[in-house]
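Sharing a chain and its predicted structure for anyone who wants a worked example. Both blocks are below, sequence first, tokens second.
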Amino acid sequence: MIKAFYSIVLLAIAILLSGNYCVAMNDKGENNIVIAQTYYTAMAEKNIAGVAQYLDENVIFIAPLTTVVGKQEFLERVKEFFAYSANLTIRVVFGSHDQGMVVFTLDYPMPIGIVEAAALLTMQDGLISKIELFYDARLFEKRIE
């Protein structure tokens, strides 16, 4: 899991260094970049309605500490995230075909602190059908104890 996260981060760094902040293979990829950017902007603004409008009813959310299936259950988890997190800063968004990738920084209250993360979003018919979140789950051990 950690290797996959670092591979994604290295790819994002390469894109940042190249100056290509939005990379797309076609119009569909460009649309996916817009969806990913708008969705994570709503997350950063803690805008639950903005988040909800981009989710498929059967969205699948996979993260190191949880898996959730279904829009309503996922939105309940998002509300919990909003209550606990302090800040989300988007670093880079890119995409192609039916996917978008967002690399972002989360600023949690102590004892967690700064968490670097990446999300791979799969889109279908203009909605997010799957979110795979990558981060170092060890940072959350103190909260879980």
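Comments welcome. The longest strand covers residues 114-124.
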